[in-house]
Every structure is written in C-alpha cells, then in structure tokens.
Amino acid sequence: PAPWTVASSSMMLTSNLARRAPLAASRAAAGSIRSFGMKARNDGVMDEPIPPNYTIDSIKPPKHWTSPGPPDKDPNEYVRGPVTSAHAVDIAADPPRLSARDSATFSPTGAVVHGRYGELDPDATESIPLEYLALLRHSAEGAAAVRTVSSGKKGTILVYGATQPAGLATTQLASTSGCAVVAVVGGEHSGNDEMVDIVKGLASEPGTAIPEEYALLKKNFRDIVELVSKGDDPSKWPGHDPDAFLQDFKQNLLDYVEYYPDTVPAAVSADHMDFAGKEKDRANFSANMSAYLSQLPPGEAPLDPTKLDSYFPKEQYAAWKAKFGKQTTAVISGDDAPDFVPSHLVRSMIAENEEVDPQILKPIHISEGAGDYVPYEPSVLDRRNGEGPSNKLPTGGPVLGAVVVVTPALQSAAEAVDKAGKSLRSKAEALQFLTQTQRRAFAGASSVIAEAKRAGGTVVVVGGSLPGLDAPIEPADEDVKEALAAMDVDEKGQSRMNYFLQVYRASDYAVYADYAIHRATEPLSGPRTIVVTK
C-alpha cells in the first residue's frame, strides 16, 4: 500500500485508544469503590434544623393548582337547549299538528300550565315529568273510566286499545284499585310481542293481556274472561280419566318391550349393530359397540299382558310415577342412585305386589303446623290442587263493564257500518270494503262490548265517539287529581302510572317537531307515545 495510507491508519488507531483509556479507568475506579451490594450514603444532606412554626402549609402551591380556571370550550360542543314545554301530537287534526291543548308549559313563575286544565298545583306536579303532564287528559280519562265502570266495586274490567295512552292509564289504575283487567291490545300494536308482555305485566294477577287477534272469535274471548273473573279450578277440568291413562301406559309399555327386547345389548334400534365402517375395523366393532351400549338402558324381557292387567292397577301406576321424583332428587343431591330402568320397575312391582304409600293415594299433612298441602306434580288418580288458603287460585270477580279506547281504525269501521244501514247484509257488505285492520278492530271491539253487555256491565268510550254507544266520558276535577297522584314519582322512582314515550326535542332542533308529526301519522308508528318538547 501507499505510505500515506499506512500512516493514516496508524493515527486513527492511536486516537481511538486514547479516547477509550479514560473511560475504562473511570469504570474500574467505580467498580473498586462501590459494588452492587453496598449502601449509598448521603452525608451532609437534610442535616439542617427545621425552622420554627414550619408546617406543610408554609409553602403555598401555585394558584392554578388550587383553583384551576374554566376549561376552554370546544367550538363544536353540543349544548342542549332548555325545555319549556311538552306537546302531544294531535293526529285527528287536519292536517296533524302539535296539540296546544294537550300540552304542559312552564310559566315565568315556574308553575306548570296545562293547555286544558290551566295552572296545576305545584305540590302535585313537583315529582312528575313534564312529558307525562302532556298526557294528563288521557290519564284523567282513564281515571274517569275506572270510576264510572267500577263505581267503587271490585271486579273484572275489560279494556280495548290497551296500548293507547288512555288504555294504559285505565289498565294501571284499575289494577292498582284492586280490579282484574282483561286488556286487549289493538291491531296496530298486537304484533309487538314485547309490548303485549309489558301490558300483561301491568295487569296484575289474575288479569292478563291478549292481542286483538285472540278476541276476534267471541267464544275464545268469553272463555278467557270467564277464567279471569271466575277463576280456574283444576278439579273441574274435563278429560281426566285415570283408567284411560293406565290403558295408554300399558299399551306403550308392551310396545316398548316388543321393540326393545332383552336379546339386544341395549334399548336402541337394531340398525346400531349394523357395521358400516372399513374392513380393517370389523374385528373390533363388536367389542366397541358392546362397551358403548353398556352405558344405555338395557332391553326388557317379554311381559305377560294378563299379569300386567291383574297386578298393576292405577294405584300402582301412581306409585310408579312417584319413583321418578325420588330418583331425580337423589341424582341432584349426589346420593347413591342405582340404575333406574322404568320397565324393570314395573316388573319388580308386579312380582313383589308393592304396597302403595298412603300419601300417594290421599295426601295429608305430614305434621301439625306443616302448612297447606301443595301438590308439586299432577296425579293420575284425581284432580288435586292442594288444600288450604294458599292453594286457592285468585279470581277477578264479576265483570263490571268495558272501556273502549277509540283508535282511527275502529272509528272508521264503526262509522262505515253505521252508515250502511240496519240490516246484517248491508253491514256485512260495508265491512267487505274496509281494510283488514279496520275489520279486525271492529270485530275485536265488538267482542269486548258484547261480553260486557252480556254480564250487564257498563260500556264507556274514551278518546272519541262511536255510533250506537254513549258519548265519550268527560273527566271531572277529581279524575284530574287522581291522575296527577298516580303519575307522581316517589322516592324509589316508582309511580302507579307509567307511559312508554318517544321524546323528540324540538328545543334543540326545530325540525324535530315536523319529523315527530310524520312518525306519529305513519301506519305503523310503534307502541310508544310520541311527545315533542320545546
């Protein structure tokens, strides 16, 4: 190589060694002074005396720590506008609009002013949502309907249009007053299973709720009304024949023994023993299937039908069924449970002529103070439903009347039938030109009205007028007070009257008001009541 190349390389090597020498020396010195296990000492630190009257508050933190200023506002932050009023949607108006009468507004003094009833008592409305107060007229109509139909008595009240605001109010007020309610959900909401279940929950036992389709046949509706009003007594159920039950069981047992004889490894079909695998697996097939089938119940030897008829009466059949409960208890509790083969039990009971427990034949109290006898399984011997007050099924009482909430479909159908004439032919022809929704509404309401009249009850119409019935009821002052008391929310967040609302806040976006009207006038607007706040 060239001379200057060798000289340059030597100078670079000498320079690197000179830089690394002090670093290596410092590391060696540090290693010789302190090792990993030594404790560091900080002599001379914090040896000054604490000044007098020195506390933790002597040095104040910066002001922005103790009192931070307001955070900077996001220019895109959504700020909700204040709500000053709530309005229901008047779909009967032409065109539909927000109702000025069914509305609740805050006055400058803070009181609530209703569009129909004027300024409301501040104490009565203190714990009521403003959206609920927009439906005060519907609530008062429900209170007036319950007062008129019940007249202070306890019984069964029929309600058509139970998901309408007035129908919901009627159902809940009647239930909380001690009456049983059979609520019929109109066709506009009967397809919503969740809402039907909600109304069924609002109608306390023994009341219930049914879809409109169930009430189309008057016989079906009459049966359920009788079950609610008169109660359901199992001892009066038809078709309970112990001898027929026993004969069916014996025939099934003989068929079982014939199909699953004891010549097969287990009580399975014969095709389980058919080999359908590869030829190399044929040698071990029988052994594997025998091990597998040993886990299953075995087959049964032939039974003599004559002995079965002679030594296995219905009392033995009841005792045989009771063994299932004991076996289930043993399995759940982890006790030693022997192999349980029902067909073997029948054979052993016939051979031993097993004595039947008297408790199976006629249940009695096991000991004094044990309480009422409650049967936990049906008996093949009789229709037993227990003894004592706790076993009495609730009854709603006599039918007091019906409350019909007018819906658009029902009103259109009723007016068309009324204009057609008095003959059945003309009414039938008028119904043929209506939509299916209108025909079903007319049929469902007719079933409710007919059942109330058959019982001699009162029929009340709310929310509109129907031809042939009395004018719709007008709430009195006492009804308004009852509605306010029912809507009051207590300290636990509960109230006797609840609504299912869909609120559109036009106070934030004015276009929400028009959209709410559009949604309320749709053919299937949903089960929730639309309320608009401004």
Give a topology summary:
Layout: H1 3-33, H2 63-66, E1 85-90, E2 97-106, E3 112-114, E4 118-119, H3 122-125, H4 130-133, H5 136-150, E5 156-160, H6 165-176, E6 180-185, H7 193-202, E7 208-211, H8 218-230, H9 242-259, H10 282-293, H11 305-311, H12 314-333, H13 342-352, H14 358-361, E8 399-405, H15 408-420, H16 424-432, H17 436-454, E9 458-462, H18 477-487, E10 501-505, H19 511-520, E11 529-533
Parallel strand pairs: 5-6, 5-8, 6-7, 8-9, 10-11
Antiparallel strand pairs: 1-2, 1-11, 2-3, 3-4
Structure description:
The chain has helices at 3-33, 63-66, 122-125, 130-133, 136-150, 165-176, 193-202, 218-230, 242-259, 282-293, 305-311, 314-333, 342-352, 358-361, 408-420, 424-432, 436-454, 477-487, 511-520, and strands at 85-90, 97-106, 112-114, 118-119, 156-160, 180-185, 208-211, 399-405, 458-462, 501-505, 529-533. The chain contains 19 helices and eleven strands. Mean pLDDT is 85; it is low at 1-18 and 21-32. The N and C termini lie far apart (95 Å). Helix 15 (408-420) crosses helix 16 and helix 15 packs across helix 17. The protein has a six-stranded mixed beta sheet. By secondary structure, the protein is an alpha/beta fold.
Order of helices and strands: HHEEEEHHHEHEHEHHHHHHHEHHHEHEHE
- Net shape: extended
Report the end-to-end length measured between terminal Cα atoms.
Answer: 95 Å
The helix tally amounts to 19
Biggest sheet, open or closed, and with what strands and sense?
Answer: 6 strands, mixed
What is the CA-based Rg, rounded? 42 Å
Tally of DSSP β-strands = 11
Q: Pick out the low-confidence regions.
A: 1-18, 21-32
Strand order of the largest sheet: 4-3-2-1-11-10
Strand content: 5-15%
Overall helicity: 40-55%
- Structural class by SSE content: alpha/beta
Average pLDDT across residues? 85
